[in-house]
Amino acid sequence: MFSVDDHLLHLEGDALPRDVSAAVARALLADGARCRAPVAGAVYGTLLNDRHALEALGNAVNAAPYKAPPRAPVLYLKPRNTLAGHGARVVVPGGQDGPGVQVGASLGIVIGRTATRIAAFNALDYIAGYTLVADLSVPHASVYRPSVRFRARDNFCVIGPAVLARKHVADPDNLAISVAIEGTPRFTANTATSVRKVAQLLADVTDFMTLAPGDIITLGVPHGSPVAHEGARATISIEGWPSLAVEFMGATA
Protein backbone atom coordinates (compact mmCIF):
# COMPACT_ATOMS: atom_id res chain seq x y z
CA MET A 1 0.00 0.00 0.00
CA PHE A 2 0.98 3.60 -0.62
CA SER A 3 -1.18 6.10 1.24
CA VAL A 4 -1.34 9.87 1.62
CA ASP A 5 -3.26 11.52 4.45
CA ASP A 6 -2.98 15.13 3.30
CA HIS A 7 -0.06 16.69 1.37
CA LEU A 8 3.07 14.58 0.86
CA LEU A 9 6.27 16.42 -0.04
CA HIS A 10 9.96 15.58 0.15
CA LEU A 11 12.18 18.54 0.98
CA GLU A 12 15.78 18.48 -0.22
CA GLY A 13 17.92 17.42 2.71
CA ASP A 14 15.19 15.35 4.35
CA ALA A 15 15.70 11.59 4.44
CA LEU A 16 12.01 10.87 3.97
CA PRO A 17 8.91 12.65 2.63
CA ARG A 18 6.63 14.51 5.05
CA ASP A 19 2.83 14.15 5.14
CA VAL A 20 1.63 17.59 6.27
CA SER A 21 -1.38 19.88 6.07
CA ALA A 22 -1.92 22.20 3.13
CA ALA A 23 -1.02 25.19 5.32
CA VAL A 24 2.29 23.65 6.42
CA ALA A 25 3.13 22.62 2.87
CA ARG A 26 2.55 26.15 1.61
CA ALA A 27 4.61 27.64 4.46
CA LEU A 28 7.55 25.37 3.70
CA LEU A 29 7.41 26.15 0.00
CA ALA A 30 7.01 29.88 0.61
CA ASP A 31 10.48 29.92 2.17
CA GLY A 32 11.94 28.93 -1.20
CA ALA A 33 12.51 25.27 -0.37
CA ARG A 34 13.49 22.92 -3.15
CA CYS A 35 12.09 19.40 -3.18
CA ARG A 36 12.81 15.95 -4.40
CA ALA A 37 10.15 14.01 -6.27
CA PRO A 38 7.60 13.05 -3.57
CA VAL A 39 7.33 9.43 -4.76
CA ALA A 40 9.85 6.98 -6.15
CA GLY A 41 7.80 4.50 -8.19
CA ALA A 42 7.78 4.02 -11.94
CA VAL A 43 6.44 6.96 -13.97
CA TYR A 44 4.51 6.34 -17.18
CA GLY A 45 3.59 9.06 -19.65
CA THR A 46 0.48 8.86 -21.82
CA LEU A 47 0.45 10.05 -25.42
CA LEU A 48 -2.48 11.14 -27.59
CA ASN A 49 -4.91 11.30 -24.68
CA ASP A 50 -5.81 14.90 -25.45
CA ARG A 51 -8.69 15.40 -27.88
CA HIS A 52 -7.05 18.47 -29.42
CA ALA A 53 -3.83 16.53 -30.07
CA LEU A 54 -5.73 13.87 -32.01
CA GLU A 55 -7.63 16.53 -33.95
CA ALA A 56 -4.37 18.25 -34.87
CA LEU A 57 -3.03 15.02 -36.40
CA GLY A 58 -5.98 14.92 -38.75
CA ASN A 59 -5.86 12.16 -41.34
CA ALA A 60 -2.27 11.30 -40.41
CA VAL A 61 -3.62 8.86 -37.80
CA ASN A 62 -5.03 6.79 -40.69
CA ALA A 63 -1.75 6.62 -42.61
CA ALA A 64 0.69 3.70 -42.66
CA PRO A 65 1.98 1.97 -40.66
CA TYR A 66 -0.84 2.36 -38.11
CA LYS A 67 -3.83 3.09 -40.39
CA ALA A 68 -6.16 3.99 -37.49
CA PRO A 69 -6.31 6.05 -34.30
CA PRO A 70 -4.91 4.25 -31.23
CA ARG A 71 -7.33 1.74 -29.73
CA ALA A 72 -5.42 1.41 -26.45
CA PRO A 73 -3.41 3.87 -24.35
CA VAL A 74 -0.08 4.87 -25.88
CA LEU A 75 2.46 4.81 -23.04
CA TYR A 76 6.14 5.57 -22.54
CA LEU A 77 8.42 5.28 -19.52
CA LYS A 78 10.12 8.23 -17.85
CA PRO A 79 13.26 6.50 -16.46
CA ARG A 80 14.80 7.16 -13.07
CA ASN A 81 17.37 9.68 -14.33
CA THR A 82 14.53 11.97 -15.45
CA LEU A 83 12.90 12.24 -12.03
CA ALA A 84 13.27 15.58 -10.23
CA GLY A 85 11.36 17.76 -7.80
CA HIS A 86 10.12 21.30 -7.28
CA GLY A 87 12.79 23.87 -8.17
CA ALA A 88 14.67 21.48 -10.46
CA ARG A 89 17.29 22.94 -12.79
CA VAL A 90 17.05 21.56 -16.31
CA VAL A 91 19.74 21.87 -18.98
CA VAL A 92 18.39 23.09 -22.33
CA PRO A 93 19.97 21.08 -25.18
CA GLY A 94 21.64 23.19 -27.84
CA GLY A 95 21.85 26.35 -25.76
CA GLN A 96 20.39 29.66 -26.97
CA ASP A 97 20.14 28.46 -30.58
CA GLY A 98 18.52 25.11 -29.76
CA PRO A 99 14.84 24.18 -30.06
CA GLY A 100 14.23 24.62 -26.34
CA VAL A 101 12.29 22.31 -24.05
CA GLN A 102 8.57 21.71 -24.34
CA VAL A 103 6.87 22.01 -20.94
CA GLY A 104 4.07 19.46 -20.90
CA ALA A 105 1.95 20.02 -17.78
CA SER A 106 0.01 16.94 -16.77
CA LEU A 107 -2.04 15.52 -13.94
CA GLY A 108 -0.10 12.73 -12.27
CA ILE A 109 -2.20 9.85 -10.92
CA VAL A 110 -0.46 8.22 -7.96
CA ILE A 111 -1.34 4.56 -7.41
CA GLY A 112 -2.17 3.49 -3.86
CA ARG A 113 -2.49 -0.30 -4.19
CA THR A 114 -1.65 -2.96 -6.73
CA ALA A 115 -3.89 -2.54 -9.76
CA THR A 116 -4.38 -5.40 -12.22
CA ARG A 117 -7.36 -5.64 -14.58
CA ILE A 118 -9.45 -3.23 -12.56
CA ALA A 119 -12.81 -1.90 -13.72
CA ALA A 120 -13.54 1.75 -14.44
CA PHE A 121 -16.39 1.88 -11.91
CA ASN A 122 -14.05 1.38 -8.94
CA ALA A 123 -10.71 2.50 -10.44
CA LEU A 124 -10.56 5.62 -8.27
CA ASP A 125 -10.38 3.37 -5.20
CA TYR A 126 -6.86 2.38 -6.33
CA ILE A 127 -5.59 5.97 -6.31
CA ALA A 128 -3.64 7.35 -3.34
CA GLY A 129 -3.60 10.90 -4.64
CA TYR A 130 -2.66 13.27 -7.42
CA THR A 131 0.32 15.44 -8.25
CA LEU A 132 1.63 17.83 -10.88
CA VAL A 133 4.01 16.49 -13.49
CA ALA A 134 6.11 18.65 -15.79
CA ASP A 135 6.68 16.08 -18.53
CA LEU A 136 9.51 17.69 -20.48
CA SER A 137 10.75 16.88 -23.95
CA VAL A 138 12.81 18.31 -26.76
CA PRO A 139 10.24 19.37 -29.41
CA HIS A 140 9.89 16.67 -32.06
CA ALA A 141 7.29 15.53 -34.58
CA SER A 142 6.90 11.80 -33.93
CA VAL A 143 4.19 10.73 -31.49
CA TYR A 144 4.09 7.04 -32.30
CA ARG A 145 7.71 6.28 -31.47
CA PRO A 146 8.63 8.46 -28.48
CA SER A 147 12.36 9.06 -28.67
CA VAL A 148 14.49 8.32 -25.61
CA ARG A 149 16.86 11.02 -26.84
CA PHE A 150 14.10 13.63 -26.68
CA ARG A 151 12.13 12.50 -23.62
CA ALA A 152 14.59 10.80 -21.26
CA ARG A 153 17.19 13.47 -20.55
CA ASP A 154 18.25 14.18 -16.97
CA ASN A 155 15.55 15.97 -14.92
CA PHE A 156 13.01 15.73 -17.76
CA CYS A 157 10.22 14.62 -15.41
CA VAL A 158 9.63 17.13 -12.62
CA ILE A 159 7.06 15.98 -10.04
CA GLY A 160 5.38 17.70 -7.14
CA PRO A 161 5.84 19.70 -5.16
CA ALA A 162 3.34 17.56 -3.25
CA VAL A 163 1.03 14.61 -3.68
CA LEU A 164 -2.48 15.64 -2.68
CA ALA A 165 -4.56 12.94 -1.03
CA ARG A 166 -7.41 11.71 -3.23
CA LYS A 167 -9.98 13.19 -0.83
CA HIS A 168 -8.83 16.70 -1.77
CA VAL A 169 -9.61 16.26 -5.49
CA ALA A 170 -13.35 16.10 -6.07
CA ASP A 171 -13.22 15.76 -9.88
CA PRO A 172 -9.88 14.94 -11.51
CA ASP A 173 -11.57 15.08 -14.92
CA ASN A 174 -12.27 18.81 -14.68
CA LEU A 175 -9.11 20.53 -13.50
CA ALA A 176 -7.70 23.73 -15.01
CA ILE A 177 -3.94 23.47 -15.69
CA SER A 178 -1.66 26.37 -16.57
CA VAL A 179 1.97 26.94 -17.48
CA ALA A 180 3.53 30.36 -16.94
CA ILE A 181 6.89 31.02 -18.58
CA GLU A 182 8.42 34.44 -18.13
CA GLY A 183 8.03 36.56 -21.24
CA THR A 184 5.38 34.40 -22.91
CA PRO A 185 1.56 34.27 -22.67
CA ARG A 186 0.21 31.93 -20.00
CA PHE A 187 -0.75 28.52 -21.43
CA THR A 188 -4.01 27.04 -20.16
CA ALA A 189 -5.69 23.67 -20.58
CA ASN A 190 -8.16 21.43 -18.76
CA THR A 191 -8.25 17.73 -17.98
CA ALA A 192 -11.80 17.74 -19.39
CA THR A 193 -10.32 17.45 -22.91
CA SER A 194 -8.87 13.99 -22.16
CA VAL A 195 -10.01 11.20 -24.48
CA ARG A 196 -9.83 8.69 -21.64
CA LYS A 197 -10.84 10.05 -18.26
CA VAL A 198 -8.87 9.02 -15.17
CA ALA A 199 -10.91 5.93 -14.29
CA GLN A 200 -11.07 4.65 -17.87
CA LEU A 201 -7.35 5.21 -18.39
CA LEU A 202 -6.52 3.10 -15.34
CA ALA A 203 -8.93 0.37 -16.42
CA ASP A 204 -7.48 0.25 -19.94
CA VAL A 205 -3.84 0.32 -18.81
CA THR A 206 -4.25 -2.33 -16.11
CA ASP A 207 -5.91 -4.60 -18.64
CA PHE A 208 -2.42 -5.38 -20.00
CA MET A 209 0.00 -4.32 -17.22
CA THR A 210 0.07 -4.07 -13.43
CA LEU A 211 0.52 -0.72 -11.71
CA ALA A 212 2.23 -0.91 -8.32
CA PRO A 213 1.78 1.24 -5.20
CA GLY A 214 3.72 4.48 -5.63
CA ASP A 215 3.69 4.35 -9.43
CA ILE A 216 2.55 7.42 -11.34
CA ILE A 217 0.74 7.50 -14.66
CA THR A 218 0.10 10.84 -16.31
CA LEU A 219 -3.25 11.72 -17.80
CA GLY A 220 -1.38 13.18 -20.77
CA VAL A 221 0.19 16.37 -22.04
CA PRO A 222 -2.15 19.00 -23.51
CA HIS A 223 -1.81 19.91 -27.18
CA GLY A 224 0.19 23.05 -27.90
CA SER A 225 2.28 22.99 -24.72
CA PRO A 226 4.71 25.93 -24.54
CA VAL A 227 8.47 25.84 -25.05
CA ALA A 228 11.02 27.18 -22.55
CA HIS A 229 14.51 28.38 -23.44
CA GLU A 230 17.74 28.91 -21.55
CA GLY A 231 17.31 31.32 -18.64
CA ALA A 232 13.54 30.82 -18.32
CA ARG A 233 11.56 29.77 -15.28
CA ALA A 234 8.29 27.86 -15.65
CA THR A 235 5.53 27.60 -13.07
CA ILE A 236 2.99 24.81 -13.49
CA SER A 237 -0.29 25.15 -11.62
CA ILE A 238 -3.57 23.38 -10.99
CA GLU A 239 -6.28 25.47 -9.37
CA GLY A 240 -5.61 25.87 -5.65
CA TRP A 241 -2.70 23.40 -5.51
CA PRO A 242 0.87 24.29 -4.54
CA SER A 243 2.61 25.28 -7.80
CA LEU A 244 5.54 23.42 -9.35
CA ALA A 245 8.59 25.43 -10.48
CA VAL A 246 11.26 24.48 -13.01
CA GLU A 247 14.36 26.47 -13.99
CA PHE A 248 16.04 26.14 -17.40
CA MET A 249 19.75 26.77 -17.82
CA GLY A 250 22.65 26.36 -20.20
CA ALA A 251 25.01 23.42 -20.10
CA THR A 252 27.85 25.45 -18.54
CA ALA A 253 25.73 27.25 -15.91
From TrEMBL:
Record bears the keyword Transferase: no
Classification via InterPro entries: Fumarylacetoacetase-like_C (IPR011234), Fumarylacetoacetase_C_sf (IPR036663), HPA_isomer/decarb_N (IPR012686)
Keyword entries, A-Z: Metal-binding
Residue ranges annotated for the Fumarylacetoacetase-like C-terminal domain, each copy included: 43-245
GO function term, MF aspect, one: 5-oxopent-3-ene-1,2,5-tricarboxylate decarboxylase activity
Domain of life: Bacteria
NCBIfam families xrefs: HpaG-N-term
Protein name (Swiss-Prot/TrEMBL): 5-carboxy-2-oxohept-3-enedioate decarboxylase HpaG1 subunit
Organism in which the protein naturally occurs: Paraburkholderia eburnea
